[in-house]
Please model this.
Amino acid sequence: LGLALYAGSLCVVSSATFLYHDYCVIGAGPAGLQAAYFLQQAGRDYIVFERSHAPGSFFALYPRHRKLISINKQYTGKSNSEFNLRHDWNSLLSHDRRLLFRRYSRDFFPNADTMVRYLEDFASLLKLQVQYNTAIIHVTLEKNEQAWNGHYFLLTDQDRKSYKCSSLLVAAGTWVPNVVNFPGSEYVEGYETVSVNPDDFTGQTVLILGRGNSAFETAENILGVTNFIHMVSRSRVRLSWATHYVGDLRAINNGLLDTYQLKSLDGLLEGDLEDLAIVKDKKGKLHITLRFYLENRNISAGIDSITLPQDELDNFATRAPYDRVIRCLGWKFDFSIYNRSLRMMPGKGNIKKYPQIKPSYESRGTRGLFVLGTASHSVDFRKSAGGFIHGFRYTTRAVHRLLENRYHDVPWPSTVYPITQLTNSIIKRVNEASGLYQMFSVLADIILLRENATAFEYLEEYPIGVLAELEMQTGRKARNGLFVIIMEYGKNFSGADKDVFYYNRAVGEAQHAWQSNFLHPVIYYYKRLPTECEMRLHHPDWPLPRPDAIHHIVEDFLTDWTAPNAHILPLRRFLENCLSTDLRNFFAESCFLFAFTHQKLPPSCQQGYVRMQGLVGSEELRRHAVQAGLLQDYTHTDFSDDRPHDGSQELLMRDHGIPVRPLRHLVNAKDE
Model:
């Protein structure tokens, strides 16, 4: 009996054993691997759970026709690696130069199999802690006051093994197909299982439900072998070049638009899919009707007893029967594995396929639960690139920095510069930063001013949705005002109904910079941090509340904002007006003259000349400065004589009629 009780107690203990990690990551797709990389670089205790035998299992199946729509630009004419990431939409962030996607494929639109191989190498070469063949089937909470967030996350896999963690990072993506149920929907084939062999569609008439890239990708594959293709969706087609949203229809897939508008039988229709019904006749043909025609009727009685729209309207658009109907409606997040205690709720409206999260990517229902990758796209849906690799690689890094500050007291990385470097720092970032460029209107560089504006602290790629919480989220102080640098499109330039190719669509003069349409830098100045109320109530078309001052750097055809007159000079004057200071750089001679003629020296003189730093003028520099209007033309001064340059201050004083006494006279005067 004693042995039996002892064995039973061991079983109880064993069943209650949890494998603990500080961080648990669900999913080893691109976002999960990116999170793992940052956690590993920081030396944190973490584990990644992947249900498949290899990372990136989504790309092993999708897209079905294997061509990615994320660009892989090999050449940009520049060697700056940060700039080149602006045009590399597939690489994850790492220190290993071998893990750039251009080393895996030269195709502008790569094959999805290449992405699978890339992700496998990313995980193996960086030795990331991924546990494969582990499907998490249930997640719940355990209250504990000693835990980081007042609770632990308890995870159970398919083998009933249990895991415990302090913070949960969900990077499982959106992989559950969207399905619309209507009478006859059992005759519909799903994008996830439909044949990809064009020969299977030869001479057939096809109806496609949906209007995203998966729908057009499917149509493109069979366009040359079908009788005709019709496409039905509740919304009009959205072209990515008009909306500036990469998730809308891309040019690589839009062949059906040509055949539709050039009247080659194919066509697009708008209608609510839930109002449709499909009836199958004796020959296996599928007829489209409307749900209300089937009310109080028995579909099994046969098509002859059912009223079809063409019976009342003989030119009804979809009166021709179809051989196949294919559903291409995208995917949604899998909410089924999360216990109700986590309060993982779907969003509302057009973001209901994503979980509800804050602009910090933390769940609205549970502290310590963060959503990464495609599933976090509700923050910037149809606005920016947060649902795609070239966007969420930066938002994942931002989440990691938030975690480092919250749980490990590691402040957000920053660099302190003297105020004289303010203009240069902004110009450098807007010309090369990839995170600002890809996550426009979502991530921003923050410049925190020091007291008396003598220096500033530069923070990169902070989520502007939590700007009011900056001090708490970053561990940095914003007591003396701040600048916020983001990238924006023109307010009225993006939309499904916009003509983005109209004449005079671009602005070229600095005084009209606020009317810029294409992506361009915008600098917001605040004398204090905006409050949470101001963030919540700001105009929906603006990314931020009304600032104390705002400056647009005029758009540039080459996205090269380095023109001295069009870009740099207006920016510098804006900064000077905000700070009430002179941000120009001066030669030593000018600083010496200012010391005698001004009560306050410009910052460049205070931080340069006064500290025995700065540039001493030469004849060539002086002539250039005079021609540029930066210095007065002291024509009676001869700079070509043999007097040494270290006497240039005495020379300048003599030229202005200021008597110069030898050093011994100054010493005697001081003694007297």
About this structure: Confidence is low (pLDDT under 50) at residues 3-15, 643-649, 651-672. The chain is about 25% helix and 15% strand.
